[in-house]
Task: inverse folding
């Protein structure tokens, strides 16, 4: 299993889409606080410090992470079917469960890295420009670590969902296209459907999709916090298991 | 009795209504080069994919190195190297980087194994060139290097000569023969181009429309494909005496029905008939018999032209 994971992490490091996404997010994370800094210099807005930049980075993640998930899943997972690499891995003498677990773990590490890149670099650049600062609305350290922890947790949950999907579609173009469509329009569509179907609204509001939008909230009740921890954990386990079972029975073309 | 590396028993694979494999029995002996022959879509790749663990059989079983079930069968696959259909490469990586992935995957500690394997397939000097820029022949060789990386006991090669130029085919054949001879590597190799296999294979399996038509050794096939004159005369004993005297190096067999098989008689058919005629023998039948591998296969699958 360790050998498989090492091999997957090597592939991830060498994956061009992962490198491009990392570089793009890095540039965005540098640009966001810089733009806020120059805007404040011109008297258009108040100065944005480190923790506020961190918050902006987390909010930006609701879009950036979803794009990263779709692209990386397409290239890192689904493309291996098209290139035939999955056939070599499938016949390498490791069980399907191990192959899936190694791929999921490496993909999750990649997504967690990408999801932390923007908030943390934003925070670092914001801190350099205006100091780390503090929040009026809540305890700054608690907010920082809670938000960071939840970001990681939701990244793991989304990675599990997308991995299962990417293993089933087997076409990188299809994976990227459909995942992008789902991630970009799911929330809007769900809010619309939820107006007419109350049970759907209830399910959506308790799903990782809706809960993820609340990650950067200043205050969470203990119930909301418990739900924000439990739901991504359950989602990750459920989709990890579903994906693994599906891959076990699947023929590798 | 020689050790069996791969054995398929009553292997069946159905895709919805299409029966890809129909109760196939196959045995690959240790140290053999098994030429798996069939037309496109005959079921060669399906069988190889099941053997490699990429597809699940509908019924029947596969035994690899004595293991036929569960985790033991999965682990036994660590002893095989495969290239199924197309070389599985990362186009944005160099040959060395491609092999590094499989070195890590197989837990091979010796980094120099990459260099050794690339040298073996003639790709040691490709440097940092991306595999996307490789010619088809180089890609095939890199695919073979991946299969050889873990020093397997058996290779499963599905149409490995696809896209190779004639020289590439010869090089690949020599490489595989060398590996088989020097390391005892067992090879299961498929092709729909029979001439690629007839100078290499020690055993053959003929598959058609998902059914195994025949399995035989190269020597059995040679006997079956051997060219001879089928002669039937009124006095076989006299005919043999004439043949012995007239054709000193003649190799022949007397069949139970009194007919004679005169091997290698194709080129001497004229002189043989003259000899028999001048001895006063009445010739009832005088037929050249024998076929090339292609003809044999064609006849086997029911090709009327060669029947």
Result:
């Amino acid at each position: 299993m360790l050998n498989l994971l090492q091999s997957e992490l090597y592939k991830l490091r060498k994956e061009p889409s992962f490198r491009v996404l990392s570089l793009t997010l890095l540039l965005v994370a540098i640009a966001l606080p810089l733009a806020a800094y120059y805007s404040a210099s011109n008297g258009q807005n108040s100065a944005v410090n480190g923790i506020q930049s961190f918050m902006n980075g987390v909010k930006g993640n609701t879009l950036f992470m979803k794009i990263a998930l779709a692209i990386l899943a397409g290239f890192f997972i689904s493309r291996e079917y098209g290139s035939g690499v999955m056939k070599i891995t499938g016949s390498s003498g490791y069980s399907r469960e191990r192959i899936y677990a190694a791929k999921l773990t490496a993909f999750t590490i990649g997504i967690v890295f990408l999801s932390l890149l923007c908030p943390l670099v934003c925070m670092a650049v914001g801190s350099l420009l205006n100091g780390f600062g503090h929040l009026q609305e809540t305890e700054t350290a608690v907010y920082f670590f809670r938000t960071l922890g939840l970001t990681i947790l939701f990244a793991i949950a989304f990675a599990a969902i997308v991995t299962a999907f990417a293993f089933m579609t087997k076409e990188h173009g299809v994976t990227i296209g459909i995942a992008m469509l789902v991630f970009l329009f799911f929330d809007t569509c769900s809010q619309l459907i939820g107006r007419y179907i109350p049970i759907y609204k209830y399910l959506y509001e308790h799903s990782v999709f809706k809960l993820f939008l609340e990650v950067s909230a200043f205050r969470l009740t203990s119930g909301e916090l418990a739900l924000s921890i439990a739901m991504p954990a359950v989602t990750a386990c459920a989709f990890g298991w579903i994906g693994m079972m599906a891959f076990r029975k699947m023929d590798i073309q | 009795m020689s050790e069996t590396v791969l054995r398929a028993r009553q292997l069946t694979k159905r895709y919805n209504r299409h029966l890809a494999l129909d109760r196939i029995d196959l045995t690959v002996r240790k140290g053999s080069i098994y030429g798996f022959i069939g037309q496109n879509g005959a079921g060669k790749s399906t069988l190889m994919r099941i053997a490699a663990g990429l597809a699940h059989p509908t019924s029947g079983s596969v035994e690899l190195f004595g293991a036929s079930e569960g985790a033991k069968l999965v682990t036994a696959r660590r002893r095989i190297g495969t290239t199924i259909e197309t070389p599985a490469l990362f186009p944005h990586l160099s040959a060395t980087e491609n092999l590094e992935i499989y070195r890590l995957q197989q837990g091979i500690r010796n980094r120099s194994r990459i260099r050794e394997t690339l040298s073996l397939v003639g790709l040691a000097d490709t440097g940092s060139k991306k595999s996307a820029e490789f010619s088809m022949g180089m890609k095939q060789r890199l695919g073979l290097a991946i299969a050889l990386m873990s020093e397997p006991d058996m290779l499963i090669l599905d149409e490995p000569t696809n896209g190779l130029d004639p020289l590439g085919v010869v090089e690949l054949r020599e490489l595989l023969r060398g590996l088989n001879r020097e390391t005892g590597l067992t090879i299961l190799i498929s092709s729909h181009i029979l001439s690629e296999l007839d100078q290499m294979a020690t055993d053959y399996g003929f598959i058609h429309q998902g059914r195994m038509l025949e399995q035989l050794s190269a020597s059995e096939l040679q006997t079956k494909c051997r060219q001879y004159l089928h002669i039937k005369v009124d006095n076989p004993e006299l005919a043999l005496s004439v043949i012995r005297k007239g054709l000193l190096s003649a190799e022949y067999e007397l069949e139970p029905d009194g007919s004679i098989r005169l091997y290698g008689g194709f080129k001497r058919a004229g002189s043989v008939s003259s000899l028999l005629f001048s001895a006063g023998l009445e010739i009832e039948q005088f037929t050249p018999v024998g076929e090339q591998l292609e003809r044999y296969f064609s006849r086997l699958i029911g090709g009327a032209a060669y029947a």
Q: What stands out?
A: Chain B has two domains: 4-216, 227-289. Chain B touches chain A at residues 49, 52-56, 71, 74-80, 82, 84-93, 97, 100-102, 104-107, 146, 156 (CB under 8 Å). Chain B has a mean pLDDT of 85. The CA atoms of residues 15 and 302 of chain B lie 25 Å apart.
